[in-house]
């Protein structure tokens, strides 16, 4: 079982930046893919970004050019660097580790003020 702990959320003004962290309880190099989703109240969870064990990254169109994934294998941590933030980026952000099943973190709130 993979345990994930997210951190780094908070309140920033539009145009600002945040870095979210997702620390895994085991080596992320052995995990097929790790990624981020976000969810607003009453809405479905939506894909944000994903990085595979081979280092390939995928982004939702809404965040391309603004968000970047990186990882530190030594720390078993994946980072989501978020720049040029917009009020519509306000959501709870969840980290996911994809192996034979998906493991989810508890989520971290990101709020962007206009």
Which key features would you list for this structure?
114 residues, mainly beta, 7-stranded mixed β-sheet, 4-stranded antiparallel β-sheet, 11 strands, 0% helix
Q: What portion of residues is helical? A: under 10%
Report the β-strand fraction as a percent range: over 45%
Termini separation: 40 Å
Q: Would you tell me the structural class of the helices and strands?
A: mainly beta
Shape: globular
Biggest sheet character = 7 strands, mixed
Question: How many individual helices?
Answer: 0
Report the average pLDDT across residues.
95
How much is the radius of gyration in Å? 13 Å
- Number of E-state strands: 11
Spell the H/E element sequence.
EEEEEEEEEEE
Oligomer: single chain
How are the elements arranged and paired?
Blueprint (H helix, E strand, L loop, with lengths): L3 E4 L2 E4 L4 E7 L8 E7 L6 E7 L4 E3 L7 E6 L4 E6 L8 E8 L3 E3 L3 E6 L1
Report on this structure.
The strands form 2 sheets. Strands 2, 4, 5, 6, 9, 10 and 11 form a 7-stranded mixed sheet that branches. This protein has a 4-stranded antiparallel sheet with strand order 1-3-8-7, with no helix packed on it. 0% of the residues lie in helices and 54% in strands. The protein has 114 residues and is mostly beta strands. The chain has strands spanning 4-7, 10-13, 18-24, 33-39, 46-52, 57-59, 67-72, 77-82, 91-98, 102-104, 108-113.
């Amino acid at each position: 079982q993979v345990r994930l702990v997210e951190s780094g959320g908070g309140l920033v003004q539009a145009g600002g930046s945040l870095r979210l962290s997702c620390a895994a309880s085991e080596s992320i190099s052995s995990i097929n893919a790790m990624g981020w989703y976000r969810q607003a109240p009453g809405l479905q969870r939506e894909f944000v970004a994903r990085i595979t064990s081979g280092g390939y990254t995928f982004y939702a169109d809404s965040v391309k050019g603004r968000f970047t994934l990186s990882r530190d294998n030594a720390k078993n941590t994946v980072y989501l660097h978020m720049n040029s933030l917009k009020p519509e980026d306000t959501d709870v952000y969840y980290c996911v580790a994809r192996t034979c099943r998906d493991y989810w973190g508890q989520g971290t709130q990101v709020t962007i003020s206009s």
